[in-house]
Amino acid sequence: MDTLNNIVNTCELTRGNSGTIAYYSHLIPVILSLILAIFVLVKSKYNLFSKIFILFITTFSIWLVGDVILWTQNNYFLQYASWSPLLYIEILFYTLGLYFVMVFVKKSDVSILVKIILFLATLPPFIITIMNHAVTGFNYPVCEAFNNNFLDNYKLVYESIILLIILFYALVPIIKKLSKEEKRASLIMLGSMFLFLAFFGVTEYIGAYTGVYEINLYSLFLLPIFLIVIIYAVFELDIFNFHILGTHYLVIGLVILMGGQLFFMNGATDRILTIATVIATLGISFVLFKNLKRESDQRVHIEKLSVELEKSKMRLEETNIKLADANDQLKSLDKLKTEFLSLASHQLRSPLTAIIGYSSMLLDGDFGKITEEKQREALDRVFTSSRHLAVVIEDFLNVAKIEQGGMKYEMSPFDFGKAAQDLENDMKMPAEKKGLEFSFENDGKAPYMVNGDMEKLRQVILNITDNSIKYTEKGSIKVMLTKDEKKKKIRLAITDTGMGMTPEIKATLFQKFARGEGGKVNTGGSGLGLYLAKEIIKAHNGLIDVTSPGPGLGSTFFMELDTI
């Protein structure tokens, strides 16, 4: 055989110029496929989908290398050695193509059972190949090997089944209710894989059946078209999430195609021009890649910002949820607090009423004459403190009613001026007892008719006036009632010469338990009087506020109501 190979090279004689064409039809797809595999390997972070794709591309490239040896090499031993495993390798990349399609459709790995079936399906050709029965002989005169008939038929049936399964997967998205984008991605990816394998298998079968193997050789020129479609699906549809690399890949592919022309050129001038063109294209590609890198960096930066923004949005949503939960808990606690205050106040009011009643009767001598002044003084303190505590409890009850929506108002027309005048006698005595001048004036535009709850509004006047007396150590308390007939408003103003206040204290004065600097002077108040006054006036669609020139310069509390 060695002598025959050295004397007459029948491989070269039978193939003619096909060997030169084989370099171009085989090696360019190999280079393009391997470059694509490297891109996927580097950028996909080794996910399952990319691993299968790389195996498929690599196996197909191995088959192309083996086939190009059959078309280009003249050594019979190398021919025989390369021919033997090609059928098994072909079955293997068909199997990987099916595995790739199933994972693409399911968006996850296949079951163990499916993997076992695929493995068992490739086992017979593997055993036949390693036992050196894939090729039964070699026809030296025509430089061809004799394939194992069983393996040929097995390959035909097995590949036909795989093509039918892939065709089924490719047609299913048309029937299923998927989005337009999902249907487009499935049709491009699955359709291109089906056409790739179908065109490859059909042309190979026709070549083997007719004995005109050049059919399969020339068909390989069309395989890059299907490979480009798969590349489009990989990059344009961003299957592996590295869209920007598509331009790099296509430019490199263009350079390789241009360089491939060197296989067909015999003239030195043509070769020099082609090499110069390839070099110029490489220079332009370098500039293009540099610009693309800048765009890629910007895109990565934008994507990072987008991810950070999304994370910030998620954190904000989580914070909002936590705040909402905390707010609900606070509302629940506030409700429990209000209910507790209401219950406690009700429970305290009954015994406190008895204390006030009995201490009053003792002071009046209903149970006998008090003989000692110290006894009277003690009883008087009990009576005064009890009355003060009763006011505090009443304030708590009113706050609880307001917050629970249970405060009832008995609205009716009445003379607000008369109600204010009646309170003068009630408040004049404690003011003068403290050494303060107390005066009540009006503008003479009686009557001062309003529609409201007289008892509640009397309570407001009482709270404001009592507040002014408490926090005024010397000077006077002046109450002024006026009516603006044009605006149909009645205004009651209580001006004192007391502590005054800053704008910061004024801003919080009508809140619950807010007492400003007055809490340092008078520690006995509940801090609810002005809050209740504000809520009552608000229920009457009125206005209550305070003005002060500053600390130590006194204050003017005023309220306005609609007149009728």
Q: How would you describe the overall organization of this protein?
A:
The chain has 564 residues and is an alpha+beta fold. It has 2 domains: 2-245, Up-down Bundle (Rhopdopsin 7-helix transmembrane proteins); 412-562, Histidine kinase-like ATPase, C-terminal domain (Heat Shock Protein 90, 2-Layer Sandwich), CATH 3.30.565. 69% of the residues lie in helices and 9% in strands. The protein has 19 helices and 9 strands. The chain has helices spanning 2-7, 10-15, 18-43, 48-72, 76-83, 86-106, 112-130, 149-175, 180-210, 214-219, 223-235, 245-260, 268-363, 373-403, 416-433, 454-470, 503-508, 518-521, 529-539; strands spanning 135-139, 144-147, 412-415, 437-442, 449-452, 476-484, 489-496, 543-547, 555-562. The protein has a 5-stranded mixed beta sheet with strand order 4-6-7-9-8. Strands 1-2 form a two-stranded antiparallel sheet. Helix 4 runs antiparallel to helix 6, helix 6 (86-106) packs antiparallel against helix 7 (112-130) and helix 6 (86-106) packs parallel to helix 8 (149-175). The longest helix has 96 residues, at 268-363. The radius of gyration is 50 Å and the shape is rod-shaped. Residues 1-8 and 241-246 have low confidence and may be disordered.
| Straight-line N-to-C gap | 129 Å
Shape: rod-shaped
- Compute the CA-based radius of gyration: 50 Å
- Specify the structural class: alpha+beta
Record the strand order, biggest sheet.
Answer: 4-6-7-9-8
Strand content: 5-15%
Proportion of helical residues:
55-70%
